[in-house]
């Protein structure tokens, strides 16, 4: 009854929701493949998803990594008058940063740059910002200004203005990142955007929700509640096991009732800023074997496109509930063939439930109750 009452309250407040449409754009991988540069790029900038979640892997206090398959971004504005930026809404990090006119990196040349001289509400600081990537770094300085996100106006929001950016960011469609994880992860102690929304009473509920579509348009981030038009059936509420990332406990991953991953239970992070489902190397190898994937001469794990209808479902068993991911969802189909949407994190036992998972389940990130809610997407 408790959660029925909460759900009723959320639906009743639906008129107070603040929505930001997301665009599913071309990924860096697709852009590089079209230019014939993908092989060189991935050899120079290898994908190491755990860099983002393990501070011991980097010098800085908000490590991140190159993810060439990220594709969702939305538009926010900063300053007075507003300057617009495309950002990734990332539940795996906590800082807001955008390129700036201070930046002299090649990555800034083809992205929108914030000009503090053109904003009457900008307040400078001398406090530096450093975000270390697995394949480079971002440096900059913190400033304060008015930020508009889905109709919400946040005055005096701290954000990062980049001075240098990692080379791989040249190929990213988004200009910057808006982090939606917890304050403890924020580089330089910057207060996250959503924390300011909550503190200043700008949202009716201390939660936000994410719907990811496979189409170019239709995806949405909703601040202050949830929208029942994006899901069907009941919401399954899962308590957080750690309040830094959106981390939960997972029981197992099964195929036809047989455990194929997360043996004996494991930890998983629900992350909109990771494109794939990521797990330990041995488990990912096992998953790929079970679904009939093979490694091609270029190192990609591929499947025969005509076999997708014959491939098994994956079941992610979490908090007593089973969340099914069919082959049509975990196989990525492009003009260059078909590959599984699984990534390896090496020897780390932690899993990351990225966009491949979130596309199937409308996801609610509840700060008040420290829970993640999952419901089948429409």
TrEMBL record:
It comes from Aldrovandia affinis. Residues 72-375 form the Peptidase A1 domain. Gene3D superfamilies: 6.10.140.60, Acid Proteases (2.40.70.10). It holds the Pfam family Asp. It is an enzyme of class 3 (hydrolase). PROSITE patterns: ASP_PROTEASE (PS00141), PEPTIDASE_A1 (PS51767). One of its GO terms (molecular function) is aspartic-type endopeptidase activity. The active site is at 90, 271. Belongs to the peptidase A1 family. Disulfide bonds join 103-108, 262-266, 305-338. Its EC number is 3.4.23.1. The keyword Protease applies. Shows particularly broad specificity; although bonds involving phenylalanine and leucine are preferred, many others are also cleaved to some extent. One of its GO terms (biological process) is digestion. Residues 1-16 form the signal peptide. This is pepsin A. Keywords: Aspartyl protease, Digestion, Disulfide bond, Hydrolase, Protease, Signal.
């Amino acid at each position: 009854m408790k959660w029925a009452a909460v759900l009723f309250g959320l639906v009743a407040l639906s008129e107070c929701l603040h929505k930001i449409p997301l665009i599913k754009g071309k990924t860096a991988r697709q852009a590089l493949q079209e230019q014939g540069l993908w092989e060189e790029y991935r050899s120079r900038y290898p994908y190491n998803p755990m860099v983002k979640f393990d501070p011991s892997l980097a010098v800085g206090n908000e490590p991140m990594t190159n993810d060439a398959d990220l594709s969702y971004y939305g538009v926010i504005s900063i300053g007075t008058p507003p300057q617009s930026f495309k950002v990734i809404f990332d539940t795996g990090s906590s800082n807001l940063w955008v390129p700036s006119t201070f930046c002299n990196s090649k990555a800034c040349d083809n992205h929108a740059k914030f000009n503090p001289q053109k904003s009457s509400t900008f307040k400078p600081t001398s406090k530096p910002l450093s975000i270390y990537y697995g394949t480079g770094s971002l440096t900059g300085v913190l400033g304060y200004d008015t930020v508009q996100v889905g109709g919400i106006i946040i005055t005096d929001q701290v954000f990062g203005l980049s001075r240098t950016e990692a080379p791989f960011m040249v190929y990213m469609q988004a200009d910057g990142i808006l982090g939606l994880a917890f304050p403890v992860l924020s580089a330089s102690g910057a207060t996250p955007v959503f924390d300011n929304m909550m503190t200043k009473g700008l949202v009716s509920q201390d939660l936000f929700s994410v719907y990811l579509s496979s189409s170019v348009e239709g995806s949405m981030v909703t601040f202050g509640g949830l929208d029942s038009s994006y899901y069907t059936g009941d919401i399954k509420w899962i308590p957080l096991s750690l309040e830094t990332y959106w981390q939960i406990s997972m029981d197992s991953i099964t195929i036809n009732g047989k455990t194929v991953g997360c043996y004996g239970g494991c930890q998983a992070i629900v992350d909109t800023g990771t494109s794939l489902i990521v797990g330990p190397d041995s488990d990912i190898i096992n998953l790929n074997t079970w679904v009939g994937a093979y490694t091609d001469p270029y190192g990609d794990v591929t499947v025969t496109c005509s076999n997708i209808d014959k491939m098994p479902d994956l079941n992610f068993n979490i908090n007593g509930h089973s969340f099914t991911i069919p082959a049509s969802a975990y196989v990525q189909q492009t003009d260059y063939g078909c590959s599984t949407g699984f990534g390896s994190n090496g020897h780390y036992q932690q899993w990351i439930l990225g966009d491949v998972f979130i596309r199937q389940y409308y996801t609610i990130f509840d700060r008040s109750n420290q829970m993640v809610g999952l419901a089948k997407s429409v």
